[in-house]
Amino acid sequence: MTEVPAKTIVLDTNIVLDLWLYLDPATPTLLEALTSKRVDWVATQTMRDELERVLTYPHIVLRMQRGGLVAVDVLAQFDRFTRLVPVADRAPYVCKDVDDQKFIDLACAYFCLLVSKDKAVLTMRNRLARIGVSVVSQFAI
Asked: Phi then psi for 37, rounded to 5 degrees?
């Protein structure tokens, strides 16, 4: 039996929070794909740094407390499931939200699936599709 190569994906910070903090009902399929290694989640240290910073926001800290979590719990999941790669070169398309550009750059470098609920990213779907990058707001296989 031939093994199917893992599908490369990029997840934005809000999707990461949906997975391990908010436990969004839309994320079990993604979590199962990560756990079974059917997807290869690529990320950069800059993305991890952003997550670490976001986990200090007061409303996020309160949410973690309610769920019995601390930042290291969420960061441990990030570390467990990501493959850290170098920061990508600038993509041919620029996002209006500079904070989201790193996700677009990386997805373009790997010509892969970008999972994001960010409106600035989602509005770039058609442009990114022209160069082989799919942008979705929900992961599904």
From this structure: 65, 25
